[in-house]
Design brief:
418 residues; disordered N terminus; globular; Aspartate Aminotransferase, domain 1; binds 4'-deoxy-4'-aminopyridoxal-5'-phosphate; four-stranded antiparallel beta sheet; alpha/beta; 14 helices
Length: 418
């Protein structure tokens, strides 16, 4: 399927890959679409779109309920994706894979179902200064409800986690250390195994927000030594409204469900209920069946390319984009300059111009970027600005996309000079 590039440092021929993403054939304001917003949501290849249609045409039924053939086939297809995801992240057991609505739900579930049961007043929850709101607000709420204290792992001057600060923040009183695999604002990829080890040595659990990790790196939860890892399908070529929470079986077993109803029970009487086995006790109601089955096609696509090749492509792309932006004295970049230490999500500002204005002018040229606080308001405000522009690349972005984007940036700035 994929042709290897020979003319760039990338192991992926992004020009060939992009042919497989129908939406990239469309125009925006009369210009070819340059999509640089994959950190918000990635595009979907033809194989995923076709699989979705095929599922609707051949497999529609509820799961885990009826005995008819369609239901049995749909249930088998649905459950096979759980096996697939478990194998992909090297989870010891399929029961440790819970389908959620997204990373947000997975992280909230841990805070609610594990946190409320185990975190006591005066105990410590350690977070980082680069949290997305999805891995910040649930813990702040938990601390408010329980009387626990929050401590933060600080950033270094070059936008990485300060591991000395981590060693200081994570003490014997710490119950939970929650941190992102990679920052959606800075692009920084964190040393997950090392932080998880510091947490473990202190007797704390590690909870990883993998929303910006799983789409860009292969993940081995056992090698990383993490207790929980949450991610979203829509950032890795899959459907919206679907995510995965991995949790160690012992911990999931020890958690009560936060949502109750159909399919998550073992037995119900007029005055009570007992819970189904893992993972079903956390999957109340009818799940995103078509989404789960379709997700397998997204994983096929990623695996065919190979996560190492994808990371290599992103490195080459980011290297080029950072070099181009680095030539512009009027651009401030927020994030590590070494493409080896980061993803392709690049946040920046143009001197004297509002981030929203830049994003709007780029959009007029067909270049899709995000502006704002990127659901990481305290982090972005710590730069002394209310917002940044974020251009985020993925496996279908070419170096020509960078050229178009930078050219458009020049034009935008020129407008504000006059
Ligand atoms: N964490 C990070 C780092 C993210 O980038 C995102 C998505 N913006 C989330 C969590 C939440 O993901 P979702 O909206 O898919 O639940």
């Amino acid at each position: 399927m994929v042709v290897r590039a020979e003319t760039t440092n990338s192991p992926v021929d992004a020009a060939a890959v992009r042919e497989q993403f129908p939406i990239l054939a469309r125009t925006v304001h009369g210009r070819p679409l340059v999509y640089l917003d994959s950190a918000a949501s990635s595009l979907r290849p033809r194989a995923v779109i076709e699989r979705e249609r095929e599922v609707a045409e051949t497999l529609h039924s509820n799961v885990h309920r009826s005995a008819h053939t369609l239901a049995a086939e749909t249930t088998a297809a649905f459950e096979s994706v759980r096996d697939r995801v478990a194998a992909r992240i090297n989870a010891p057991a399929r029961e440790e894979i819970v389908f959620t609505r997204g990373a947000t739900e997975g992280l909230n579930m841990v805070a609610r179902c594990w946190g409320e049961k185990h975190v006591l007043a005066g105990e410590r929850i350690v977070l980082t200064r680069m949290e997305h709101h999805a891995n910040l607000v649930p813990w702040l709420q938990l601390a408010r409800r329980t009387g626990a204290e929050i401590a933060f792992i600080e950033l270094t001057g070059d936008y990485r986690l300060d591991l000395d600060s981590a060693a200081r923040a994570i003490n014997g009183n710490t119950k939970i250390v929650a941190f992102p695999h990679a920052s959606n604002v800075l692009g920084t990829v964190n040393p997950v195994a090392e932080i998880a080890r510091i947490a473990r040595d202190a007797g704390a659990l590690s909870v990883v927000d993998g929303a910006q990790g799983a789409p860009h790196r292969s993940v081995d939860v056992q090698a990383l030594g993490v207790d929980f890892y949450a991610f979203s399908a829509h950032k890795m070529l899959g459907p919206t409204g679907l995510g995965v929470l991995y949790g160690r079986r012992k911990l999931l077993d020890d958690m009560d469900p936060w949502m109750t109803g159909g399919e998550m029970i073992e037995r119900v009487t007029w005055d009570g209920a007992s819970w189904a086995e893992l993972p079903h006790k956390f999957e109340a109601g009818t799940p995103h069946i078509a989404g789960v089955i379709t997700f397998a096609a997204a994983l096929d696509f990623l695996d065919e390319l190979g996560m190492d090749a994808i990371a290599g492509h992103e490195r080459a792309w980011t290297d080029y984009a950072l070099a181009k932006l680095g030539e512009l004295p009027w651009v401030t970049i927020y994030g590590p300059r070494d493409a080896h230490e980061r993803t392709a999500a690049i946040s920046f500002n143009v001197d004297g111009v509002f981030a929203d204005d830049i994003a709007q002018l780029l959009d007029a040229d067909g270049v899709a970027v995000r502006s704002g606080h990127h659901c990481a308001q305290p982090l972005v405000e710590s730069f002394g600005v209310p917002a940044t522009v974020r251009a985020s690349g993925y496996l279908y972005n070419t170096l020509e996309d960078v050229d178009t984007f930078v050219e458009s940036l020049h034009d935008a700035r020129r407008l504000f000079e006059n």
